[in-house]
Every structure is written in structure tokens, then in C-alpha cells.
Amino acid sequence: MINFNKSTAFSESIRYVFSLLSSHSISSNGKFTKECEKNLEDNFGYKKVLLTSSCTAALEICAMITKKYCGEKNEIIMPSYTFVSSANSFAKFGFKIKFIDVKSDMNVDEKLVLNAISNRTAAVVTVNYGGFSSNLELLAKICKEREVFFIEDNAQGIDAKFKDQYLGTFGDFSTFSFHETKNVTSGGEGGAFCCNNLNYIEDAKIIREKGTNREQFFCGIVDKYTWVGFGGHYLMSELQSAFLLGQLENLDKVTQRRREIWQMYHHGLQFLETQGVIELQKESKDNVHNGHIFYLKCRDLNERSALITKLKQDGFGAVFHYIPLHESPAGQICGEFVGQNVYTSRDSLRLLRLPIWFDLKDEDINRCIKSVVEFYEN
């Protein structure tokens, strides 16, 4: 069976983990955490990076900073087509979610963001879906003019760009996921909070350290640390950081290989799109993607279900993606869908993702393509 996803344990990751275990010093926020943070800052231009226990934790840091400075503003704008953490991280701190539609590429519609902003808006959260993005320059401009926080949920966007600038560098804050399903992983779970507006970095450090000024203590700024505000246990373990560092050092070849696989799928299935039986994920002149996802869109839900069954019979794990959050029980309590709904509900029933991971062999990719082609030929 060819799994939908499979993570890779690079030799560097294994070596760093054993080195850490041999040192008998495995507390959080140590040497490997600092090296990972520096790697991300130096290579991608994030002003300050804090590793976290998950992308969800990083989003909660964003929410807590927003809550502190938003005053009476209590609304967050985001796409409904996203993972639950994008919304839950804000809803749990009392924000109302205004869900809006995506475009055909499943990234948020900039025009609808502008229409949804009101004097109650505290932040706009965009989701860089599959290593692609909306017009981040325009969204940043809109948020700056309306004086609201701009946050990039960049869980899937490492090493991808919009107009030669890395995703995650446009927002006041951005977040990463290093879950095992992502291009690089910290060994199961893990994430990062990226602060591009340094006015809020001290808030983020306090929140990450359970609401204490512990980091100031270790820097010698205070002689003892104490509870100074709200926070959570959001630190990544040092073992995970050691594993992640080896992954980050191999990121270039991971991205290159995933892009190659993406191109193989696209080339092999393009004639089916020309025939009008499927729609394919498309490259954008403004984006340099990272091969995180390859998806196609079937004509309807029944066709998608049948294709998933066919692929499974042929030994391939293909999956669909998000259930729109505004259709979920919690989404209906915590928010509402505003504006038109052209793509979110319809395309969530049509979208199908094919296996894509670093060690996937060319012959298996070609067999997967053949399975899809056979389905439509028959």
C-alpha cells in the first residue's frame, strides 16, 4: 500500500537526537531549539521565530496577543475552508469568527476580506493553502489601512513564495506546522510562531512560557522569574527540536523532490482536464509553491468517493480534505458565513489529494496516475 503520507528520518536528525540524549541535558528551549529558530530567521527572513509544541499553539499565541490589544474588537475574518485550529484558537478566547469564501485555488478571496471588515474586526487570518497563497501584499495593505492584525496561517507554506518573498513574512504574525504530514517534521507534532512585528515579541515570549518572564530571567534581565500574564505550555521539546534541525538542513532537497512529484502528476493528468472530466491544481505566476499538496477536483461527491475506492483497490491512499468550518456544529455556534459561497461548500466535496512525499518513487507515481486515468476511461 502506498500511503498518502510518509515522513522521512534524515541521518542528521537521528544523529542530533542521539547527541542530545548523550548530553543528559534535554530541557526545552535549549541549543537545538535556538539553532532551529536561527535557521528559520536567517534563511527565510522572519524577524523572530519561537518554536512551539504545535501550529495550534502558535495560533493561540496569535490569538492571545490579539485579545490583549484589540480593545472592544471581537471579530476575526478567515476562510471557512481550513483546519479547525485556525478558528478554534481564536474562538476559545471569545472571538466571533466571520467565515468567508475562497477562490477556485482554495485560497481566501481578497475582495471578500475587504467587504467583511468592520469596526469590530480585530484580525484577518489568511491560510496559505498547499504552499500557495492569496495576494499577500494586498491583504497586508488592507489590514494596515484598517488597523487590524494580519495573521498568516502558514502551516503548509514553508519554503514557498509570493512574488519572491517567502510566505509567512507578510503578516504581523505567522505560524508553521511541523506535524508529520508536513514537508518537514519535528517528529510527529510541532510548530513555530513567527513575529514580523517586533512590538509584540515580548508578549509572545511570556505567553509561550506559561505567562511568566522566565526568558528574561535566563537572559539576566531579572533576578527571578514570576507570573506576569496569561500564557500556556507552548514550548517544543528539545528532542523534537533536535529532530527538526536535521529536517531543516535537508529542506532544499525536500522541496525540490516534492515539486518534481507535483509536476509528474500534473503532466500525467493534464489531458483529463483538457477533456473536461477533472480540474487540476494550477501553478500561479505570483507563487513559487513547495509541492506540499497535489489535488484534483472531481465533478461531484459521488465521483470522488468512487475514485478514492478505485485508488485504494490499486494500493494508493488518496484522501479528501477539510469539511467547511461554517457547516460544523462548533462553527455554527462560534461564527457565521458572510458573503457569497461559490467555492467553499461545493469544492470541499470535489477535492481529492494524491500521495506526495519525499521518498515516493517515480514508478509509484506513474502507477497512481495510471489508476486515475483508468477510472475515467472506464
How would the global form be characterised?
Answer: globular
Low-confidence runs: none
Structurally, the number of domains stands at 2
The radius of gyration over CA amounts to 21 Å
**Largest sheet descriptor:** 8 strands, mixed
> Helicity level, as a percent range?
40-55%
| Protein structure class | alpha/beta
CATH architecture of the largest domain: 3-Layer(aba) Sandwich
CATH fold field value of the largest domain:
Aspartate Aminotransferase, domain 2
Q: N-to-C SSE series? A: HHEHEHEHEHEEEEEHHHHEEEHHEHEH
Instruction: Enumerate how many helices there are, as a single number.
Output: 14
Number of strands: 14
**Strand portion:** 5-15%
Neighbour order of strands in the largest sheet: 1-9-8-5-4-2-3-13
The CATH H-level superfamily of the largest domain is: Type I PLP-dependent aspartate aminotransferase-like (Major domain)
- CATH top level class name of the largest domain: Alpha Beta
Mean pLDDT rating: 96
Please provide a written account of the structure.
Helices cover 41% and strands 14% of the residues. By secondary structure, the chain is an alpha/beta fold. It has 2 domains: 11-248, Aspartate Aminotransferase, domain 2; 251-377, Aspartate Aminotransferase, domain 1 (Alpha-Beta Complex). The strands form 3 sheets. Strands 1-9-8-5-4-2-3-13 form an 8-stranded mixed sheet, sandwiched between helices. Strands 7-6-11 form a 3-stranded antiparallel sheet, with no helix packed on it. It has a 3-stranded antiparallel sheet with strand order 10-12-14, covered by helices on one side. Helix 1 (11-23) packs antiparallel against helix 9, helix 2 (31-44) packs parallel to helix 9 and helix 3 (55-69) packs across helix 7 (201-208). The chain is globular, with a radius of gyration of 21 Å. The two termini are 23 Å apart.
